[in-house]
Amino acid sequence: MSELWSVLHREFVYIWYYFELQLRQIFWYWVIGMAIGSFISVFAKDRIHGLFAGMQNKKMGVLGIVPACLLGIASPLCMYGTIPIAASFRRQGMREDWLAAFMMASILLNPQLIIYSAALGGTVLCVRIVSCFLCGICAGLLIRLFYKNREFFDFKGFSERESHDTHPNLLIRYLLNLWRNVKATGLYFLIGILLSALFQRYVPQNVMVDVFGGNEAWGVLMAATVGVPLYACGGGTIPLLRSWLTDGMSVGSAAAFMITGPATKITNLGALKIVTGLKRFLLYLAFIMAFSFLSGLIVNLIV
Q1: pLDDT score recorded for residue 256
Q2: Which of 24, 211, 223, 301 is deepest in the core (most CB within 10 A)?
Q3: Contact 181, 38 (CB under 8 A)
Q4: pLDDT for res 248
């Protein structure tokens, strides 16, 4: 029995070492990301959405997809928060391709996730921002090409939700939003660090290189596929990605994971299924898998 306890204690020490190391390395990225995300949500969200709503009065044509993507990335809302906003824009006459670009970019990236991703290094951060932006552009262009005179989204029954940020004291309003962020992401963040510690302890580095490394299409495809079940929260996947990149994951594989993960997150899929219907929902999934796979291959050729 004493020998068993000795083994368990040794393994606990190893896992705690990796856990504490990862926590020290990325904790402040998480804190700063939440602080900035809450600031934008409380003080800039309405301004961002107002800028998007104001686009409908401008004759930008297909070029409007670009600012729609940028505003989608700047929006701090989750998909269940974005859809009611998009529904209100549709009622005001917003173009379908602009809506698609805004929603796609909003699914993949937000200011908070950008700060989190800085923990992965400058190269991976740039790859994430550019690939998510281009994914939004492609989504808008495809909707414009194939659904120019038809509606892709069905927003029946969706109305803009009341904001939680209504306290008259601005500081208290901000702190309440920050606390909601902590509750929403804190557990996933710690689970992500624990999983990365377990990977570092029990998964040999050569396995990670064989599965996700190099410039092989197989590694990119595996990363795109793994992103579907493993992604639950943006902050929770940062420790995993950091660990995998250290162990030999290629940047292209990471890019594929960072696209399929948020795009196929269960909560996002549930919301999108409601507003697209089965056929267009399947088209969305095919687009995400194809774009993430091609993006990963291209990134591996460039980086």
Answers
A1: 92
A2: 223
A3: yes
A4: 84
Three-state secondary-structure class, residue 161 = coil
Q: Pull the structure tokens for residue 163.
A: 């904001």
Contacts for 102 with CB less than 8 Å, ≥ 6 apart: 52, 68, 69, 71, 72, 75, 82, 86, 89, 136
The per-residue DSSP string of 47-64 comes to HHHHHHHHGGGS--GGGG
What whole-number distance in Å separates Cα of residue 70 and Cα of residue 66?
Answer: 6
Residues of the chain with pLDDT under 70: 1, 80, 157-165, 205, 214-215, 229-234
Q: Which residue has the tokens 């919301």?
A: 271
pTM of the model: 0.88
Q: What's the pLDDT at 161?
A: 60
Which token pair is 150? 């038809």
Q: How far is residue 187 from each of residues 107, 145, 236, measured CA to CA in Å?
A: 21, 42, 8
DSSP notation for 95-149: -HHHHHHHHHHHHH--HHHHHHHGGG-HHHHHHHHHHHHHHHHHHHHHHHHHSTT
CA 251, CA 296: separation in Å to the nearest integer?
8
What's the rounded Cα separation, in Å, for the pair 236 and 123? 20
209 vs 107, 138, 250, 260, CA distance in Å? 29, 31, 8, 20
The owner of tokens 């624990």 is 194
User: Nearest CA to 92 among 128, 129, 40, 54?
Assistant: 54
**294 Cα distance to chain centroid:** 18
Residue 274, both tokens: 């409601």
Domain boundaries, the chain: 20-302
Contact call for residues 105 and 132 (beta carbons, < 8 A): yes
pLDDT at res. 195 = 85
Predicted local confidence at residue 159, as pLDDT? 59
Between CA 199 and CA 205 the distance in angstroms is: 9
Amino acid identity, position 269: L
